[in-house]
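hey can u run this one w/ adenosine-5'-diphosphate bound, need the structure tokens asap thx
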Amino acid sequence: MFKREIAIICIFSMLLLLASCGAGESVRQIYVMDSVASIRLIPKNEAAADLICKELYDMDNVLSAYDGEVYDINRNGEGKASRHTEALLRSSLELYEKTNGAFSPLLGSVIDLWGIGSKNYIPSQAEKENAVAASDIGNVAIEGDVIRLSGGARLSFGAVAKGYASDVIKSVLEEQEVEGAVISLGGNVYVHGKKPDGELWRVAIRDPRGGENSWLGTLLLSDRFVISSGDYERYFEQSGVRYHHIMDPETGSPAQSDLAAVAVICESGVVGDAYSTALYVMGKEKALSFWREGEGFELVLVGRDGVVTVTEGVADAFAPESGKGYSYETARR
Ligand code: ADP
Ligand code: MG
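ok here u go:
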């Protein structure tokens, strides 16, 4: 890879491999939203890099379900939302409709019940049913900037906060007229403009069964988000069963998907983030129908059976990595 002098961005992992990090760039790495954010602007633009970091810290302060504004709204059952919380809830409610509820911003009670990656609790059927009932989308109302919750519902923006944040970063890049940039928020990538040599960026799709630095293919892109979800990101195992962090809103349990990972390629971070989670829940067949019926996004689906499906809009941009044990197919409309 380094011989070819391309920047490979490992998505899913928090690691950004910088193939040609030089003096004419602004680079930042900060910890926000429970993950590492890597920012690389070319040419150097320290003011824009500082502004991006400030925006990220501001969003982190309000959107976390564990402290800040969303936490307060969950605890009090209602509250005034600042601009990010209001915008994210409004987008999330639309994305709930679009995904037929496979993505839901109201799954806090289900997510907290299991505490995947923290308390790692396996709930009873009754506990799951209660949490699913509390997550009914009718249990949230937004009037102006006031959010009201009922029936034990709790907001959770874990599936979309990073995507939303990358949209905000994209608008800063545009306003500041940054020519080229690579942004990675916990492995969700946005590539902006072109590389200094005028070429496209090469974004790696992580191998969900390999280590953090192992990828199964790359995509040549510009001005696109590549946003991923999978069962390898956060999970625990008990009696040979893997309990991972992507929940099926209907059952209140980790989704039983035939997919190991989903990458969504699109022009909106919040849409890509909601879709990556939702399409993982849907599984391969429904995910492909959703793609055929929809527009404005492309997919790389990694099946548990070792088949990687690349949708036709990015088929030419995709280069498989040999020797990984996967087979590759192209999905057509
Ligand atoms: P990551 O956070 O690793 O980028 P995702 O974007 O797929 O992965 O978000 C997963 C997180 O979203 C989970 O940790 C959980 O907090 C929350 N979540 C899990 N299932 C759903 C769902 N069906 N709808 C909305 N949020 C979910
Ligand atoms: Mg997501």
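Residues 159, 229, 273, 276-277 surround magnesium ion (ligand 2) (CB under 6 Å). anyway lmk if its weird
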